[in-house]
Amino acid sequence: MDLQPNLLTATLGIVVIRLDDDLAVVDVHGEIDGLSPGDDIRESMPVLYGLEDALAVPDVDIAMPLIQTGRNNDEPVSLNIRRDPDTGVLWLFRRDVSEESAIHRQLVQNHNSLSLAQAELVKARDAAREADRTKTAFLANVSHELRTPLHVIIGGASILSKTGERRPDPSEVLEYAADIHESGVLLLQLVDDLIDLSRSETGDLTLYEEPCDLCAIAAGIVSLCRDLPEARGTRVEGVIPPGSVGLTGDARRLKQVLLNLISNAMKAVAGRTDAQITVTVDADGPRLIVADNGLGMSAEELAIARQPFGQPRAAVRAKGAGLGLAIVHRLVALHGGDLVIETAPNKGLTATVTFDPARAKPLAG
Amino acid sequence: MKTYKIVVLGDFGVGKTSLIRRYVLDEFSEAYRATIGVHIYKHEDTLEGDSLDVSLVVWDIEGAPLPGDQTRRYIMGASGAVVVGDLTRDDPFSAMWQAADMFEEVLPGRPLCLALNKSDIASVKSPETVKRMTRRYDCPVFETSALTGDAVNTMFRALARSILSLGL
User: Fold this and answer.
1) CATH code: domain of residue A281
2) Out of A11, A24, A119, whose CB is closest to B89?
3) Are A297 and A345 in contact (CB under 8 A)?
4) What tens digit of pLDDT does each residue of B110-137 get?
5) Domain range spanning residue A154?
6) Percent of chain B predicted with pLDDT > 90
7) For residue A119, which residues of chain B lie inside 8 Å, CB to CB?
8) Are the beta carbons of B11 and B86 closer than 8 angstroms?
9) Which site among B24, B36, B56 would you substitute to test the A interface, given the most A Cβ atoms closer than 10 Å to its Cβ?
10) Which residue among B35, B38, B41 places its CB closest to the CB of A6?
């Protein structure tokens, strides 16, 4: 038995008593075992168990032989007395050695262990069911997102291939060609996003890290937004400090983070108000902040938006498969950063990416 | 130095023994070994701010979803109780209600506190239930982790302070 300082044990059939202490001595029923409160344990215990002679011996050793005794003749009890050689503390172990007691102890242990294992199994089963449901929903979403642009491509190509009187006029040809191109771009973006998502899930998304300048990356995205068709009517401005904010990271992926966030912001505010990209750095680390003052989202909508293919009410009519935010989450995590989103209905949305200060890297020049 | 008996109650496997061993011995084991009957630990502590030494006898009582007569006997003479629940379970609270009710029935007016354990791997899913429990028993609640030690000492010391403030 494991001896611990200040530990008494009174389990089923086992009592461990420290004889130099004034603690209450309990038996297997949690009651004073043959003693009245205030009784001197050292005097009473030997009397109870017929150990006067044993304890009277002044040099009771740590290896004192096992003594078989019992309060009733038909109760198999073992007593083992040990003295701690370092502290001189005397320990008395009383153990019910009956088979019934041992079986009872084992039954309780088995019952508890089985119950806990069963609870874990139920949890694992529920998690597996949920994962299966998610996978099915994911496949349904992918199929849906693929079908829409494919229908445009097939339908457009079919019309363009017509001859004779049914041949479209030159202006229609240009229109159908533009639709096919746009659908192809959408498909490519979707496939790229799916590959990124899949690689991040399997841990195969690798960052090519190098010293990056967040200011240059943010300025590049602000400039790019001015040329994006979906930014029409939206003013995207940068709040970028002079000089550079260095970070060890994958520049291409950091651009992707900003582009996805600003793309969501533009969908939320198109034709209405402004979006802003801010770069800051302080003791907590470098930050990228993308804010808009558009429709915002409720907590429930935000939870939906965080899921792959999640399309909250505010974004239902927007273009995109709803993978952007999920990918941002994974890319930020790969950079050891945190993404915090603050939003409320009609209060806009602010996405703040904070990087570990250890990743901050002063850039030469 | 006065000695106070504290009982630790709750369903089996919620981490009662682990919490006590973290507090008394500052150790943690992943292995689960059911407590059968009761284990009693003695620990001397100093309440910060009070520079007051107290001796706590902590009774680690066999866990059960429904505490029985044996548990009732173990509770007798206690100055306070810790009622432990497991945050990783779907319903950590039903056994906590049972244990806290029994403690209040046996020793009305004695302080107790609630330990929502395993906070390192799960969080509170039903804050409303926690609020109801703290109102019902007029007690503090701690999100504890025997693994990391989070809030463990704080909880036992808060209970000791409550006991002292009642002049028990």
Assistant:
1) 3.30.565.10
2) A119
3) yes
4) 999 999 999 999 989 889 999 999 999 9
5) 124-202
6) 58
7) 89
8) yes
9) B36
10) B41
Q: Are residues A217 and A342 in the same domain?
A: yes
Place of tokens 């981490």: B15
In a domain, A309, yes or no: yes
Confidence (pLDDT) at A81: 61
Q: Which residues contact A152 (CB under 8 A, 6 or more apart)?
A: A179, A180, A182, A183
**In which residue are the tokens 């005794």 written?**
A69
Phi, psi of A244 (to 5 degrees): -130, 155
Last residue of a domain, one of A184, A202, A220: A202
A247 and A322 both lie in a single domain: yes
Whether A79 and A184 share a structural domain? no
Tell me the C-alpha distance between A258 and A277, whole Å. 8
Give residue for tokens 């009582």.
Answer: B61
Q: B45: helix, coil or strand?
A: strand
pLDDT at position A291: 92
Q: Are residues A229 and A193 in the same domain?
A: no
Domain holding A60: CATH number?
3.30.450
Q: Which two tokens stand for residue A362?
A: 């002063």
Which residues in chain B have their CB less than 8 angstroms from residue A27's CB? none
Q: What is the ipTM of this complex?
A: 0.71
Domains defined for chain B, CATH in brackets: 3-165 (3.40.50.300)
Q: Which residue has the tokens 């550079």?
A: A244
Is A186 within the bounds of a domain? yes
Listed residue (A298, A222, A314) closest to A264, CA to CA: A314
Q: Is the pLDDT of residue A37 over 70?
A: no
Q: Which residues contact B17 (CB under 8 A, 6 or more apart)?
A: B33, B35, B39, B60
What are the pLDDT digits (tens) for B51-78? 788 888 888 888 888 888 878 878 888 9
| Same structural domain, A193 and A219 | no
Q: What's the whole-model pTM score?
A: 0.57
| Residue A75 sits in the same domain as residue A146 | no
**Do A239 and A280 lie in a common domain?**
yes
| Residue A89: predicted pLDDT | 60
A183 and A136 belong to one structural domain = yes
The mean of the pLDDT values for chain A is: 75
A190-234 residue pLDDT tens: 888 888 888 887 888 888 899 999 999 999 888 887 766 666 667
- Two tokens at A261? 């966030």
Q: Residue A319 pLDDT > 80, yes or no?
A: no
User: Which band of pLDDT confidence, cut at 50, 70 and 90, is reported for residue A77?
Assistant: low
What is the tally of structural domains in chain A? 3
Task: Dihedral sign for Cα A285, A286, A292, A297, please.
Answer: negative
**CB contacts, 8 Å: A113 with chain B:** 32, 34
